[in-house]
Amino acid sequence: MKAKEIARRIIGIELDEGRGQGGEHFGHRVERGELDLSHNVILYLDEITVSFDGFKALNKLSMTIDVGELRCIIGPNGAGKTTMMDVITGKTRPDSGKAFFGQSIDLTHFSEPEIAHAGIGRKFQKPTIFERHSVFENLELAMKTDKRAAMSLIAWLADDERDRISDTLRLIRLDHDADRPAGLLSHGQKQWLEIGMLLMQEPKLLLLDEPVAGMTDDETMRTAELFVSLAGQHSLMVVEHDMAFIKQLGGKVTVLHEGSVLAEGDLDSVQNDQRVIEVYLGR
Ligand SMILES: Nc1ncnc2c1ncn2[C@@H]1O[C@H](COP(=O)(O)OP(=O)(O)OP(=O)(O)O)[C@@H](O)[C@H]1O
Ligand SMILES: [Mg+2]
After folding, report:
1. pTM of this prediction?
2. Over the stretch 152-182, which tens digit does the pLDDT of each residue have?
3. DSSP secondary structure string, 61-81?
4. CA dihedral defined by 114, 23, 135, 124, rounded to 10 degrees?
C-alpha cells in the first residue's frame, strides 16, 4: 500500500502544481502518428502577430525549424522570444498567423495540454521538480503522464521503462544521484532533472528559454554538450543571452528584434551583421 500512498501524494502534488493544466479544449487530441514530417520541417511559424494593448510583441514573425535541428534564438530584451514560445505552446493566442507543427497541425487551434501531448515540451525557468522525491522517482512520474496509469503502475515498472529511466539518468549526468531527494541537487542539476523529465515524455520538439541562467560555467558547458547530443533525435529551440553558450551549441542562430526576424545564419555571420550590432548597441 505504501506505493499507492506515494502515488496519491504525488498525484495530489501534480494536480495542485502540475504544468499544463486547464486551457480550453477546442481542438481534437493530436496523436503522435498524426505528425507529418514529410518535408523535414518540425515547426513553421507563418506571419504570427501578437498584440498587447496595441503593442506588437510579435509582428508577422515567420520562421522554419527542420527536423532534428538545434536552433538558437537570440535578441535583446523584449524582442518577443518568450512570447514566441508562448504561442507555440498554446499559452498565448496570436491575433493572426499560423504555427504549424509538422505539415498539418496548426498549433493555434490547440490547448496547452493538447500541444504537450502532441509532442512539444517546454522547459520553464523555475524547475517544476518534486523536491521531496528522489531523482529516479521524478523521472518515473514524468513518464506517466496519465494520472490513472500513475496510480496503477507506480509499484511496478516494466524493464524497458527502467531502462529508459537509466538511459535518461546517464544523459543528464545524474546516474550517481538517482536516489537522492531532488531538493538536494545543485541549481544546475535541478535544471537537468527538469530536462530529463521533459525527455521522459519523448517530445519531438523541445523549447528551452534561458536554460543556463544561474548555472556555473562548468554546468553551462555540460548543458551545451547535452543539447548537442539531443539534437538529431529531437528538435530544439534554445533561447539564450549567453553567447559563449550559443557558440558552443553551434547551431543556426535566429536574431529576433521587435517581434520579427532581424537576421539568421551561423553565429559569426549574425554577430558581424551591421543591423544586429546596432540593435545590441542600442541606437
Ligand atoms: N502578458 C503581457 N502583457 C503585456 N505585454 C507583454 C506581455 N508579455 C510580454 N509583453 C511585452 O511583449 C514584449 C516581448 O516580451 P517577451 O517576454 O516575449 O521578450 P523576450 O524577448 O523574451 O525578452 P527577454 O530577453 O527579456 O526575456 C515586451 O515588450 C513585453 O513587455
Ligand atoms: Mg524572455
Report:
1. 0.87
2. 555 567 778 889 999 999 999 999 999 999 9
3. EEEEEETT-EEEEE--TTSSH
4. 100
